[in-house]
Amino acid sequence: MHIDNKVKILNSDTLTSLLNILGESEKVITGRMHPMIFGVLANCKVIPFSISDKIDTFKQEWLLNENEINFNHINKTIFKKLNEVLD
Fold it and tell me: Taking every annotated instance into account, which residue ranges of this chain make up the domain Polysaccharide pyruvyl transferase (predicted)?
């Protein structure tokens, strides 16, 4: 489906297909978690829209802005959880 000539609405049945689509995309507009994560990893500008608290939490916890994952926060969280398990 096309909305004017600038936007395409695409569907994917497989992870490989999704990754190929994202690799050719500039922006991803989604309310779903996995396309949002894969879009960020594919260096797309991700524009999440809220359909659940999970999306809001991901935006607040892990994104510095619409397109940057806060890897420093992720690393700190991982090491904190590892220390809790190992202590």
Answer: 5-52
What amino acid is encoded at 25 in this protein? S
- Report whether pLDDT(3) > 70: no
Nearest to 7 by CA among 47, 58, 34: 47
What's the whole-model pTM score?
A: 0.57
Q: How many helices (H) and strands (E) are present in the chain, helices listed first?
A: 4, 6
- What would the two tokens of residue 85 be? 């398990």
Looking at the 3D structure of the chain, how many domains does it have?
A: 1
Q: What is the residue type of 60?
A: Q
Say whether 8 sits in a helix, a strand or coil.
strand
CA distance 27 to 55: 17
Which amino acid, residue 57? T
Q: For residue 30, give the H/E element and its range.
A: strand 27-30
Domain enclosing residue 66, as ranges: 2-86
| Residue 2 pLDDT | 47
